[in-house]
Write a structure and sequence with these properties.
324 residues, 10 helices, single chain, binds NADP nicotinamide-adenine-dinucleotide phosphate, disordered C terminus, alpha/beta
């Protein structure tokens, strides 16, 4: 992959900010940094330029909850007409105790995937990803299960119980947090990251042959703002206890480096979910082999549900020709 143009979503804090800084250090020629407002994106770009002593940051307004903001960002990228080599879909959040549904009818922790899908499909349609582009989206260990306080939904069972076995309808219910979904913030987060892992597998089957997409958990890096909205039990009990255990936490810089590591992976592992070893939140990343992550019916259902909720599909994937 050429180290030319990268785009990092959610660059105004935490891992997105750290990733943008590292990319500059590694010689990327331009790093587009997004923020929910142009003012925040500009402030971030300016701060990064001072810190890295490199004038390579381009601010871009992108509020992933709002389809019109994604469309405006896409229009700005189309106007520039310069293809992206590395698309880092990092923005995300652990949701609040009080259930938040966006104006577009999506649960707040699920909303970044909908915006990321609209952005990615828009870039593909506009031929604004290089033929060998790499797409990395932030995943998290709860998607594979076994993380205390975070439980993902057994989607096939949920679909069988409430949706006559229709997994697409079941995933749509999770994206919208209803009907038949009880709101539990940490579980909504686990579901959001599970749907991301499935979406990545389905997108990989639709990408032109030279491109690749991976879900990558940055691992535990609690020195970011990720749990700013989380409940007190997670913030003041679970995380401090986990942080006492060696190997369960790492710096934002180390966590962000996982994204960059994955950006060098080959097309042979496109569509896979990379995370810490079982029982860990740091250390080397490895492919996650849990059977539910590899259920093709669930993967395709997730894709179809995201298409339905976002209103955007790759209608003719085979005919997509990337710019050179
Ligand atoms: N830190 C960890 O331990 C950890 C572990 C596993 C996975 N992750 C994942 O890593 C990613 C980055 O998290 P972080 O730790 O860096 O958290 P962070 O410090 O809170 O940064 C998250 C970034 O995403 C942006 N963002 C969130 N929702 C958005 C939306 N709807 N539209 C536009 N921007 C949005 C935030 O913007 P605002 O500040 O304006 O809201 C912020 O710039 C997330 O996807 C998170 O789930 C983190």
């Amino acid at each position: 992959m050429d180290h030319s143009i990268a785009l990092v979503t959610g660059a105004t804090s935490g891992l997105g900010y750290a990733a943008a800084r590292i990319l500059a250090g590694e010689g990327w020629r331009e790093i587009i940094v997004t923020g929910r407002s142009l003012a925040r994106a500009k402030e971030t770009a300016a701060q990064l330029a001072v810190e890295t002593k490199r004038q390579v940051f381009t601010p871009l307004e992108l509020e992933l909850d709002t389809p019109s903001s994604v469309r405006s960002a896409l229009a700005a990228l189309v106007k520039r007409g310069r293809p992206i080599d590395f698309l880092l879909l990092n923005a995300g959040l652990v949701p609040t105790k009080a259930r938040v549904i966006t104006a577009a009818g999506v649960e707040a922790s699920q909303a970044p995937l909908i915006g990321h899908h609209q952005l990615t499909v828009g870039l593909l349609r506009a031929n604004l990803l290089r033929p060998n582009a790499r797409i990395v989206i932030a995943g998290a260990e709860p998607a594979r299960g076994g993380v205390p306080m975070f439980k993902y939904t057994d989607v096939p069972a949920f679909a069988a119980k409430y949706f006559r076995g229709d997994q697409t309808a079941a995933v749509e219910a999770l994206l919208r947090n209803g009907p038949n979904v009880k709101y539990v913030p940490n579980n909504a987060y686990a579901d959001a990251k599970l749907i991301i892992a499935w979406w990545v597998a389905a997108l990989a089957r639709r990408l032109p042959s030279g491109m690749a997409v991976y879900a990558v958990s940055p691992g535990g890096a609690t020195d970011t703002k990720v749990v700013r909205n989380a409940g007190p039990l997670l913030k003041y009990v679970f995380i401090p206890i986990v942080n006492l255990i060696p190997g369960m936490n790492q710096t934002p810089e180390t966590a962000a480096r996982r994204y960059l590591q994955a950006s060098e992976f080959g097309t042979d592992v496109s569509g896979q979910f990379f995370a810490s070893a079982q029982g860990k939140f740091s250390g080397p990343i490895e492919t996650q082999r849990h059977p539910h992550l590899h259920d093709r019916t669930s993967q395709e259902a997730a894709w179809q549900a995201v298409v339905k909720v976002s209103g955007v599909d790759l209608s003719h994937p085979a005919s997509l020709s990337a710019v050179s």
